[in-house]
Amino acid sequence: MSAFLKLSPQDNVQVALRAAPAGTPLSGAGSVVTLTDVSMAHKVTDQPIPAGALVVKYGLPIGVATQDIPAGAHVHVHNIRSRYTATHYRAEEAGLSHD
Amino acid sequence: MTEMLGYARSDGRKGIRNVVAVAYLVECAHFVAREVVAEFRGQPVHLIGFPGCYPNDYAQAMMERLCTHPNVGAVLLVSLGCESFNRSRLEAVIAATGRPVETLVIQKAGGSRETIRKGAAFVARALEEIATLPRVPMQVSDLTVATICGGSDGTSGISGNPAAGLAFDALVKQGATCIFEETGELIGCEHIMAERAATPELAEELKACVAKAARYYETLGYGSFAAGNATGGLSTIEEKSLGAYVKSGASPISGIIKPGDLPPTGGLYLMDVVPDGEVRFGFPNIADNAEIVEMIASGAHLTLFITGRGSVVGSAISPVIKICANPETYRALAGDMDVNAGAVIEGEKSLSEVAEEILARIMATAAGEETRSEGLGHQEFILTYKSFTPAGPACLPKSA
């Protein structure tokens, strides 16, 4: 079973079904591999997302890219933001140490 | 399958538990009430209460609903004496249902020690008295089932919540009443949710109550999003919302209720938990149990609690079935979990197999089997200040 799940065909992110080391291939995304280690249930892009573009999961927007995100990159609080309310998180615990 | 036998209550509803509720009516009476409950460890005696000294219509209405919930067989009210809570009205509402009820006022009963002694004597008598209540056959259509997710992570929206959604669809099909909640965690889903409304007017109300939640949380400066959600891979409130939304299943939405409203018919209801009017009294729900209490006040016999990070809570009055979405969390906290939906993440089970497991747990729990949190003695309860205006006419279906 692939380590990654694409929930909807319109999505530009995939979800890690288990912890995936850097270099893990994404699901049905050709040569795209994870650029860093990724924790279970975190997201990775399977295509480049330009700054300002919508990040799509479940076929629906979950936020906006705050910077250009290359294919295979970890997508999280450091490079996307809510279109509603800001996300509160503790940086040391948000699984970002490798980024 | 085990037959469901309910406790017949005078309002026609049936209970799946027969609890003696011990309720403090101000924080100053909390310790004394807790000491009464402590004498009955392992027996169905549950502590509930309201801590505030200032009057609040919402808290009064909630306590009336909770004390006359079908899972409650008798009530002891513990008052300090000088608080604002209208204890005589609460006692009258309970007495009118035929339930044994007694009010002890600490300032008149001789202080802490005497109140604890008298309270324990009442509870012992009440337990004996309600043990002989008649049991009547109960159908799935007699059940009200609530759902909540707490301690969510990136697994919640792909295993536990969609499995709970399938279970909800099966319950609605059999005529049960199902309640989902937390409009603050539906932000970003309002348009897809509105498409499921039973009427166009209800669709507008659904969008309006999510917009209200977004405004409310905006004023407070925080979304309904905890730091642990981000640790678990969730990045924004919209992402958390979409994962949470799927636990409502795919049935049409019959109506919107506010905390304490009893749904007039079976079907699927959204509970609007965000107060009306200007922001007052702080966060809508300070922790998961506040919402569980509100759904119990609206008649929930039991609650499905889907967790990714790993919540261990139960509840006073109505059992909580814990569904763990994350397989690693399940292995770490198996003693607290009733269903392992993490098996979906590991490719060992399908969503519909987990949904079947959830339905089987619901039936067993309704038939009297203890959930994990019940077995461990969990009885969490929170009730704080809020204010609501009544739900508008477009929010509810015509009573059957």
From TrEMBL, chain A:
Which CDD domains did the record assign?
A: SAF_AH_GD (cd11613)
- GO MF term set: altronate dehydratase activity
Name the enzyme's class: lyase
Q: Does the keyword Transcription regulation apply?
A: no
EC numbers, comma separated: 4.2.1.7
Looking at the keywords, is Signal present? no
Which terms are listed as keywords in the entry?
Lyase
Instruction: Tell me one GO biological process term.
Output: D-galacturonate catabolic process
The segment(s) forming the SAF domain are 11-81
Protein name (Swiss-Prot/TrEMBL) = Altronate dehydratase
Q: Give the organism, scientific name.
A: Pseudoruegeria aquimaris
GN (gene name): uxaA_1
UniProtKB/TrEMBL annotation, chain B:
What is the uppermost EC class here?
lyase
Q: Which residues form the D-galactarate/Altronate dehydratase second domain?
A: 6-130
Question: Which InterPro entries does the protein's record reference?
Answer: GD_AH_C (IPR048332), GD_AH_second (IPR007392), UxaA_altronate/galactarate_dh (IPR052172)
| Organism whose genome encodes this protein | Pseudoruegeria aquimaris
- Please state the Enzyme Commission number of this protein: 4.4.1.24
Family membership: Belongs to the UxaA family.
- What is the protein name stated in its UniProt record? (2R)-sulfolactate sulfo-lyase subunit beta
What the entry lists under Pfam families is as follows: GD_AH_C, GD_AH_second
One molecular function GO term is: sulfolactate sulfo-lyase activity
The processes (GO biological process) annotated in the record are: D-galacturonate catabolic process
What keywords are annotated for this sequence in UniProt?
Lyase
Domain (D-galactarate/Altronate dehydratase C-terminal) ranges: 140-386
